[in-house]
UniProtKB/TrEMBL annotation:
The protein, known as: SLH domain-containing protein
Pfam families in the record: SLH
Origin superkingdom: Bacteria
Organism: Paenibacillus ihbetae
Positions of the SLH domain: 541-603, 605-667, 669-727
InterPro entries according to UniProt: SLH_dom (IPR001119), Terpenoid_cyclase/PrenylTrfase (IPR008930)
């Protein structure tokens, strides 16, 4: 029997696999995005090559099965200590989980720092948290996927634990920088090594095959392209046909149903002469809805949960071709910077929330609508594309000029082509009017150190520097852009030479806005306008006369804030001072927060508050903070000169993050926040969970003023959570 005949025996066709492989390759080539990003779009899904086509699927999830599922679900829901394993079934059946379930799991995860001695506990809690609507990659600073792939227990794990770990191995964040010791392929290799000669897997390192263990492995890695699948199915069928119904426990029957349903095989028709899986499963349900582990046994919660999951898996297979453990994670949408650049200037700019593998045109259209910008689209085979934005219609100049979309990821631009408009976790999205218009991919910075050495990177204060603008070609890497490109920075404008270079005199420390543009009369721009934050470093910490007054715990954060240009001295000259213990005003904190966010001041600031007149050194930043929702606009007065309290700083930073609390309010230990407004308590909880503001034991000190070194520390922690914007 050849391989195609083997595959046909289980309802798998070689042509189907090849056809889907060709389609996948075409999609990758057309989209022109990194393979890692496309892989990340699976969101934990196993290869769908095993799922039978809807037209050929013969499985029927009948009324008897539905009633059994509902009765079991009611039993599980009434359990005082809700079993975490059941959460996956509730999620797939769209049944609400007990109130506070996700928050309690988040508490448990954060209390443990995401580290669990048992691999099974780690996987069980992770699956439950995802099923409850959580994101396992972003629980405060915890990434459960990375911690699992670096778990010391994987090296000595048995087959059941390795199979469980594989279920989670694809739920990684595409831009995570964690170094991982284990990867999906390595887990598969270890599982293949341990398959018995007969085709099954043993629950221990040696010994005969075990039905539950074999089913767990098939649930994890089973596919027509996986060489271990066919002998495992043969072994499993032989075991079932040689067994009596009374020989098998309900949990074993359930695991087999889950495995077969997950890989696209009908559990009801799997065994012709032996154990009839679905009939056996239904026969174990007791009158009250619970399941017994054995024939004529008493109610068992473990058996009830596994049977419920098996019924859910079979229902998913029969009705939707879905899998029980696929698409569980709920990534927190990223805040993505958006620029809409027309042929004569910027039409709109701001932020939008973009989820994993989201349709970019739909997301961009929602952003334009929210911004009050008119647009039109045309519907194509694969979705919609923009035909006009802000009154600018494709073909405006009589040629092939049109609107295009580009995304920036890991320091590179990617132009989306051929109507394929899905992408995961971009750092920026650019809508621009183009006629072979180039994109600035990189800006190289060079300046001369005191000893004459040429240095790259963030320039020091009052030090002249040179910028080289580069565009990308996929064949040759970065190439310098053309001459005559306008570059504006710090109130000055210069034009690039033939090598794409431009020089600027030194600037004072801070975070500036760098703008690159090249508009052409009667044509689309030569280069799409690019606006990026441009930091200029303050003098290093040791150069300040009062550097010794900085607390040891704050020294690193203060040095970082100076290096990034967020923090500056208070008295320039030959004896500069930093004043680390000086309390900050509300205006000073807003300005520093906007620098951390790399958000430019609003140059045309409107009068947001009666006590914030235009033209003050902080007016533009306060106006921008109102626009971004960091400061509320309902009050008449802002109090720019008043000292900022820890409570006020917490609220502004939480608004900047745009996150929601993860755990329960009871986990927050502070006893001096009970009388605060709910919005303040929520903000403090968010910052506590994200480890930005930790308080002092059981005290948060909400009314205490924030001093400069404390501001440097909390804002440096905040910066680690913000989207990175590379020059």
């Amino acid at each position: 029997m050849n391989r195609d005949q083997d595959m046909n025996r289980w309802g798998w066709t070689g042509d189907k696999v090849i056809r889907r492989l060709v389609i996948s390759v075409l999609i990758l080539s057309l989209l022109a995005v990194p393979v890692s990003s496309v892989l990340a779009d699976t969101s934990g899904q196993q290869s769908d090559a095993l799922a039978s086509d809807a037209a050929s699927r013969s499985a029927v999830f009948d009324q008897r099965m539905q009633q059994a599922l509902e009765k079991a679900e009611a039993v599980i829901l009434n359990e005082t200590d809700f079993p975490i394993e059941g959460a996956v079934g509730f999620a797939k059946n769209r049944t609400p989980l007990p109130k506070g379930f996700r928050e309690k799991l988040a508490d448990r995860i954060m209390d443990a720092g995401g580290k669990f001695n048992s691999l099974s506990d780690h996987v069980r809690i992770s699956l439950g948290y995802m099923a409850a609507g959580g994101d396992i990659n972003r629980i405060g600073s915890i990434d459960l996927h990375a911690l699992l792939m670096n778990h010391a227990g994987l090296e000595r794990a048995g087959v059941p634990e390795l199979a469980e770990a594989y279920l989670m191995s694809w739920y990684y964040h595409p831009t995570a920088l964690n170094r991982l010791e284990w990867y999906p392929d390595l887990i598969v290799y270890r599982l293949r090594e341990r398959q018995t000669k007969e085709g099954g897997w043993s629950a221990r390192d040696s010994g005969p095959g075990d039905i539950r263990t074999t089913a767990k492995v098939l649930t994890a890695i089973g596919s027509p392209d996986e060489p271990s699948s066919k002998p495992a199915l043969d072994w499993l069928q032989t075991k079932l046909e040689g067994s009596r119904t009374s020989d098998l426990e309900t949990t074993a029957v359930s695991d087999v149903v889950i495995a077969l349903s997950s890989i696209g095989l009908d559990a009801a028709a799997f065994s012709e002469t032996g154990v009839q899986l679905m009939d056996t499963l239904l026969g174990r349900q007791l009158p009250g809805g619970a399941f017994a582990e054995v024939e004529d046994g008493s109610a068992s919660m473990e058996a009830t949960v596994q049977a419920y999951l098996a019924l859910t898996a079979y229902k998913l297979y029969a009705e939707a071709g879905d899998r029980l453990y696929a698409s569980l994670n709920h990534p927190i949408p990223n805040k993505t910077r958006v620029h809409v650049e027309g042929p004569e200037g910027t039409i709109a700019e701001g932020w939008m929330e973009l989820g994993s593998n989201e349709n970019l045109v739909e997301a961009a259209a929602a952003f334009l609508k929210k911004s009050g910008v008119a647009y039109t689209t045309r519907v194509s085979e694969h979705g919609a594309l923009f035909t006009s934005i802000g009154g600018v219609t494709n073909g405006r100049y009589g040629g092939l000029d049109k609107w295009e979309i580009a995304v920036r990821s890991i320091g590179n631009w990617y132009i989306l082509k051929d109507d394929l408009i899905y992408y995961s976790d971009p750092e920026e999205v650019l809508l621009y009017y183009s006629d072979q218009t180039a994109l600035v991919d990189h800006i190289q910075i060079e300046w001369k150190y005191e000893n004459g050495q040429i240095i790259g990177g963030t320039p020091r204060a009052d030090t002249p520097f040179t910028l080289t603008l580069k565009k990308a070609t996929r064949q040759f890497g970065h190439m310098a852009v053309s001459s005559g490109i306008q570059v504006s920075l710090g109130g000055k404008t210069a034009v690039t030479d033939k090598n794409g270079r431009v020089s600027f005199p030194g600037l004072k420390p801070g975070v500036y806005e760098l703008t690159v543009s090249s508009y052409r009369q009667g044509r689309a721009p030569l280069l799409a306008k690019r606006t990026v934050p441009f930091p200029v470093s303050s003098p290093e910490l040791s150069s300040f006369t009062d550097a010794g007054k900085v607390s040891k715990w704050a020294a690193y954060d203060v040095a970082s804030a100076l290096s990034e240009g967020w923090m500056q001295g208070v008295s320039p000259g030959s004896r500069p001072q930093l004043a680390p213990k000086r309390a900050m005003t509300r205006a000073e904190f807003v300005v520093m927060l906007l620098r951390v966010l790399r958000e430019p001041a609003n140059p045309r600031s409107s009068r947001s508050f009666a006590d914030v007149p235009g033209g003050r050194w902080y007016s533009g930043e306060i106006s921008r903070a109102v626009k971004l929702g960091i400061i509320g606009d309902k009050l008449r007065y802002f109090g720019p000169g008043e000292l900022v309290t820890r409570e006020e700083a917490a609220v502004m930073m939480a608004n900047a993050l745009g996150l929601q609390p993860l755990g329960s309010p009871e986990r927050v230990p502070f006893k001096d926040t009970a009388g605060l407004p709910e919005s303040s308590k929520k903000a403090i909880q968010i910052l506590y969970e994200q480890e930005i503001m930790k308080g002092e034991g059981r005290l948060f000190h909400p009314e205490q003023t924030l001093v400069r070194e404390e501001a440097a520390a909390v804002l440096n922690r905040l910066a680690q959570l913000m989207p990175y914007r590379e020059i």
